[in-house]
Specification:
199 residues; five-stranded antiparallel β-sheet
Length: 199
């Protein structure tokens, strides 16, 4: 009887491990990229003159998969983040979100017929972090390497950094914001970001 109970418990544990095992983030990224590209195709003729179409596509399809709070905290640094008031954090998050949207969306205004190809993930996806490499394939120009860094949160994956041709979005923002904060306050940084001087 004891052996049967142990066997049943083992089976339950094994099933639970399968249920809670992390799945690959690649399908989510592929779906996001395909939805944005589909929107670009539908509005191809007006993209250069109507960036709102691109901004809305990025906000609708990409942002739900981005760890904006984690990115905000990381680009400011722990010390600055901890010293900031709740109101400053909220306002920074709002302005930073718009900056992320613009940074990701602006190159898409030049969209012609690009597609995105995702590479197989190297290494395990059982840890808290994973990197997914992709290539933006262009028929009339050089391909662009685009890498996604993701963190596991609540049994799902969230993007916390993007690297284009090896240049990290997170590190770029951190450097720019750090230079401003050396001699200025959070309020000055937020004002600069509103005017897009930090972008």
């Amino acid at each position: 009887m004891r052996k049967i109970k142990i066997a049943v418990l083992f089976i339950i544990w094994s099933v639970a491990q399968l249920v809670f095992a992390q799945s690959s983030p690649t399908p989510m990224l592929e779906n996001t990229a395909n939805q944005i590209i589909s929107t670009l195709k539908q509005n191809k003729t007006s993209l250069k003159h109507n960036h709102q179409v691109i901004y809305q596509a990025v906000e609708h399809y990409l942002l739900p998969n981005v760890d904006l709070t984690g990115m905000s905290r990381s680009v400011l640094g722990r010390e600055v983040w901890n010293k900031a008031t709740p109101a400053e954090r909220k306002e920074f998050g709002r302005v930073f979100t718009k900056l992320v949207i613009r940074t990701y969306a602006n190159p898409l205004a030049e969209y012609t017929d690009e597609t995105v190809k995702f590479m197989p993930i190297r290494g395990s996806i059982d840890g808290p972090f994973v990197r997914v490499n992709s290539v933006i394939v262009r028929s009339n120009g050089q391909n662009i390497a685009l890498s996604y860094s993701l963190v596991s949160k609540n049994n799902g994956w969230k993007i916390y950094d993007l690297s284009v041709e090896g240049v990290s979005l997170l590190q770029s923002f951190r450097s720019q914001f750090g230079q401003i904060l050396q001699n200025s306050s959070m309020q000055v940084l937020i004002a600069e970001m509103r005017q897009n001087k930090a972008a």
